[in-house]
Amino acid sequence: MTPHADEPTASVPAPEQLSEVIHADAYLASRLAPGLSEPNYLSFIDLRSVVGRFAGIVSGSLFDYGSGGAPYRSLFTGITRYVRADITPGPAVDRLLPADGLTREAAGSYDAVLSTQVLEHVPDPAAYLAECARILRPGGRLLVTTHGMFEEHGCPHDYHRWTARGLERAVERAGLTVTDSWKLTAGARGAVQMIQYAANSLHLPERPVLHRILAVVRRLHGFIGVPLLNFIARGFASQGVVAAGHPAAIYAGVAVIARRPEVAAGAS
To answer: pLDDT tens digits, residue range 153-167?
Structure first.
């Protein structure tokens, strides 16, 4: 959720409020086709690009782990069974997860697992990734995306941020083999995204006069600066999704595709 222009941080939504937001048409549309006036425009379109790559290489059954409103469901045209799971109920949720977030699914029951922008909200990422590995069949694939440099946002909680290599290491510790690893919204494009975050943080309530001036600056940035900077940053499209080894030190997101190893011949 994006904070209101006059609030220093986003409020923590109640479960019923969160469900309403993440299943709303406007929320889902912003993930698939964000407009230039959206402060997270760059992050959203770069994330969609990576999810689209994953959708093009998987088939069979898929478990959307922490699906929310499942904004990327339409990209997975090769999937024959798409199961949406979340701890927050809603009309797009097929499996309501228990408080511990574990799936209760049978081991090795899915060809693919999708995890988009969930890991930062999970208290125990190792247990979550181990669960991803457990429910994948041998040879099955996982896509996990999460935040690099990103503003704090409760949904209802926000625990972690990651580097590209850090996410790789966490996925490998779960017993999976990393096949692809990227930085998202990187370099100059990432710097523009950071400016969008920073502009929304211009608050100084202990100095009322300056606080009011900053409120005007924020509003002007929202009307003019946000779309203008996003338009300029579209020219840095090559920095939207870069390999994990890219020298970019600023990036808004990270993504990894990994496979569960095949069962060795003769193994019990």
So the answer is: 777 788 889 999 999
